[in-house]
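Can't paste images in this forum, so I'm doing it all in text. The chain is below; anyone willing to post the predicted structure tokens underneath?
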Amino acid sequence: MPASLAKDRSLLALAVLNFFLADARDGLGPFLDGFLATRGWSPMALGLVATIGGVLGMVATPFFGAWVDATHRKRTLIILPVLLVTAAALWTLASPGNAAVFGGQSATAIVGAVVGPALMGLTLGLVGERRFPGQVSRNEFWNHAGNVASLAGVYLASLAFGLKGVIAMMVMTATATILAVLAVDPRGIDHEAARGLAHDDGAPGPSGFSVLFAKKGLVLLAVVLMVFHFGNAPISRLIAQDFSIQLGTPFRTTAVTTGVSQLSMIAMALAAPLMIRRFGLGTVFIIALSALPVRGLIAGTFTSFAAIFPVQILDGVGAGLIGIATPIAAERILSGTGRFNVGLAAVMTVQGIGASLSNIVAGWLTDLGGYSLAYFVHGGVALFAVAIFCTAFGSIAPSQADEDDTSVNGSNRVDLTEGEG
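Text version of the structure:
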């Protein structure tokens, strides 16, 4: 097969992978809280489940990042977690007791921690440093499009077939994900580029957590994301719990609330390359971080179901843009070190500290003063993230000399279906 045709096939497979991976890597994902809340689990207990899983995933992530840097079997590091996560989710659905919930979600968090670094390494290895920002946006587009399709599928499947329909959806998406991974041509992956060595700065790259302290910008990026995710992580979970209990339909309610944020994220994936090219990566971070305080204010003030629309749209703006901007910033900071995946994994670990701690704090706040109190507190926390970012704008989001080219794959448009030939 000609090299250009193989490359095109791999990039098409990467799009399909992102489309189905949106559902396959998280197991029950956003449906877990609504499902368990209707079976008597309290906000505090659900916060504890999320916190334990988050801590375990946080500890595992940097080790998996180093593994991704070192291995040439990046496809395997996506396939195995998908199989294990799907098995854990099916266990939870079949028997939602303490063993399945705590054991299954802990296993999901640990093995799921490898998927993010593996996918970023695979992407960077396929497209290279110059085209990486544009490909990240394409990945996010297909990821969120897959989430919307999955949410619609779960809504319809649960409506028509109940829990059996949800199980069938999970098995189908896991199978499609694995087939997409196998369709990526391993010969087209540049494993030196995949670890951030498209060019070598001449100095050996730091290992493990030391990569965080070797680069000031990476340290500050990690701190900003830790604060942001402490504020943002629990809000959608609390909304799912609140309205699932009120309406008594956990899968359909969660499908609607999560679907709104995913549609917003699709819009952000389309807009992000243009925004980065026109306004710079730093401005994109500011917009994303500033969306959270407004989100918390609206969620805490209005209690009707209609409020979920602006609240979840702002989730798409904040979390959607952060998801695109973070790997781009990490790649720029670590370019030439050969430690991109472990560096990105270290950042994800630190942000995971914020996300994990927030879940149990949110559960405590909800028990103390209701859902509104938790929304106000967690939304307000993001103001600290904005302040930290503004003190070191250039270090956290460094500009790129040829940013006009790299942000949109060398053109004035974003092609969401094709990569370079």
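The first helix runs from residue 3 to 24. The chain has a mean pLDDT of 79.
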